[in-house]
Amino acid sequence: DEIGPPIEVTISHWPRLDYGGGNDTIRALSNEILSTIREVAQLNPLFRENVQFFTMHLDANDPYRLADFAASVCSAGKPEDLQAILEEKDPEMRLHKALVLLSREREVSKLQQEISRKVEEKMSESQRRYFLMEQLKSIKKELGMERDDKEAVLEKYRKQIKEYPEIPQDVLATINSEMEKLSTLEMNSSEYTVTRNYLDWLCGVPWGVVSEENFDIRTARKVLDRDHYGLDDVKDTILEFIAVGKLKGSVQGKIICLAGPPGTGKTSIAKSVASALGREFY
User: Fold this and answer.
1) DSSP assignment of 30-98, as one string?
2) Which terminal residue of the chain, N or C, has fewer Cβ atoms less than 10 Å from its own Cβ?
């Protein structure tokens, strides 16, 4: 009851013009449609599948059925274009409209094939370049002209370690363990990046490189005032740090933490502290 009574419609077929096969124009249009269908089928695999599926509906001797078949396998046609073919009573105009749709389908297929060809060429070129680069690396490695990236990184760490006069045994054992671990990891793995960053930090610390302690508070005050204006609280904290170090004879184990947004002078303050204590800034 909610839907209502069934819809009744009255259907009447419009009179179809008879075609006896003597019209040369219709024959030429039919041949051109068949030729275009074969051409598009070679360009577009999906179109070829549609043609094979609907082959039973193909009748080359009937212009109406041939036009309907051509329109049914075209994916480039708009609904109004397809409807216009169905409403066309003249067989010649019906074939002509179907041929226009097929021509549009052919151009789209050519464009699709061109895009596919360019993508394949680009991929092939990238793969070819990758293979050539890998072969070049292998050749250079065999000739001793170049080592792989992982071996070069490990060699850099070994050189850094040799430059330091004295490294604590526990630190050296950790460095060697991390280097051995790095040599077994894949370069694309996240653990490789973490391990390498840890080794960068371990090998970047100046092990055994020390400076003579300087606890001259007056000199420190001059250096801090020379490099920065104001910041009295920060300067007083640094001078207290130096004064305690002077009383104890060393600042070993003491850490000053400078916190603040970027651009507020943390790095420059740290440089001033290093200059006041006569130390290298790393």
Assistant:
1) HHHHHHHHHHHHHH-HHHHHHHHHTGGG--TT-HHHHHHHHHHT-SS--HHHHHHHHH---HHHHHHHH
2) N
